[in-house]
Amino acid sequence: MIAEEQTKNHRLVIVSNRLPIVLKKQKNDWTLAQGSGGLVTALAPVLKNRGGLWIGWPGATEAVPGLSDMLNSVSDTLGYTFGAVNLTEAELKKFYYGFSNEIIWPLFHDLQTRCNFDVEYWKSYLDVNSKYANVIANCVKPDDYIWVHDYHLMSVGKELRKLKINSKMGFFLHIPFPALDIFVKLPWRFEILKALLEYDLIGFQTLRDRRNFVQCVRTLIKDVNIHGKGQVLNCRVNDRESRIGAFPISIDYNEFARQAGATAVSEKAWYIHEDLPRRHLILGVDRLDYTKGIPNKLEAFRTALIRYPELCGKVTLIQIVVPSREDIPEYYELKEEIDRLVGEINGKFTQSGWVPIHYIFRSVSRVELLAYYRTCETALVTPLKDGMNLVAKEFCAASVDESGVLILSEFAGVATQLQKNALLVNPYDIEGVAETIYKAITMDKGEQRTRMRKMRRSVRENNIFRWVDSFLRTSIEQDLNSFPLVADYIPQIKTDEDIAIPFNTLL
Known about the structure:
The protein has helices at residues 38-47, 67-78, 89-108, 119-139, 156-162, 180-183, 189-196, 207-220, 253-260, 263-275, 294-307, 329-349, 366-375, 390-398, 415-418, 430-442, 445-461, 464-476, 502-506, and strands at 12-18, 21-26, 29-34, 53-57, 81-84, 145-149, 169-172, 201-204, 224-227, 232-237, 240-246, 280-287, 315-322, 357-361, 378-381, 405-409, 423-425. The chain has a nine-stranded mixed sheet with strand order 5-4-1-6-7-8-11-10-9, sandwiched between helices. The chain starts with 11 loop residues before the first strand and ends with a helix. It is an alpha/beta fold and 507 residues long. The chain has two domains: 9-86 and 132-249 and 464-506, Glycogen Phosphorylase B (Rossmann fold, 3-Layer(aba) Sandwich); 254-461, Glycogen Phosphorylase B (Rossmann fold), CATH 3.40.50.2000. The chain is globular and about 70 Å long. Helix 2 links the parallel strand 4 (53-57) and strand 5. Helices cover 44% and strands 18% of the residues.
């Protein structure tokens, strides 16, 4: 542990594609709104009130008057500052929608047939990564620790080395890393691997992802020496040393559990029960994305109603789909398919006083989401492939009465942690998922509590702060306490009702 006098200028610098807050334009006025996604959920509680720095794109492709003042006003509330990376509309199209989400996203989720290997995307990816590196270089101090996140920014470390930034740097990949036979389809496979090896520590969600990366490096990079055992391996290429580890990400368990027991959540949960009385409620929460397996889930639910007709009138699936990239044809078509399936199932099975699927297509507040976690007896988390999937952990943390069943895809990273007590399924096996739905509904209450109690203990013990500490100890032999809370930033304790206020709680 470093002494207090050594930590005065010692900051944790988070770098991600987007900031945890985003700009929204309403008529001619710009406002700030909370960001969404697993990365914000995971990292915002860690950085809060520590005087660190978060660098990313604020969400606008045009000049925003007074942007610095807007960011500074939020910084005073959250206890860390922001560095904005400005992107043009063309860069957003080619770097984000193009290379990141038409190449890396499908390829790393084993869906290579969806890839569009456009060389212009690659050029833009390098240019934008260089732009992020320049902003970082202008913001960081010599003693800062730079932690870069996710597939959008794999080349940032290399660009920083070009700028003679010698600070310690770590990288964490939040999505899966593919096996060799899939990764080699990437035309720029050598460049990506070499760029990643410029980081001092490269972190992955699971041992499977780390194993895939190591196999790719050993096969494609010359003169590489990888050795060690356990969670972290050492890698030397020429005179460059990196470490490679598996660090499963998590959530702020205590905060989720506390908020789940708040008055506002309890009242919302009561209204949900009143609207859907005497029903077994199954919950699905997914972003609109083809990797989430939403059509497969709906088909499995339809199959369950056909195979087990006694469920009709007694079971309701609440499917929340959070809008995402609707302006991309592939995502628009996915939404149309989901709409069609929901309509078909409801049209066939609806009875007087009972609709089998309650379909919600919008973002939901933290209070509303927690209320659904509290109310629903079963969670159906069935992605085709996922780096981790924090919904599963959130459901467990919010189950304060220790009841409920988690049906979980074996292809989600979280399955390695919860496999013994969740009900694992293959999302491609429609009949198998249908059978598991029936098993969950008919499971003995005692078994439910035993399973949930063990899953909650696992999530509690392996929370977001342990994840950060594990990464930092491996990278710089320090932990989160090396970036102490700044007294000037610590706000007064809020009441339970304040969980509805975005900037005081969600971030």
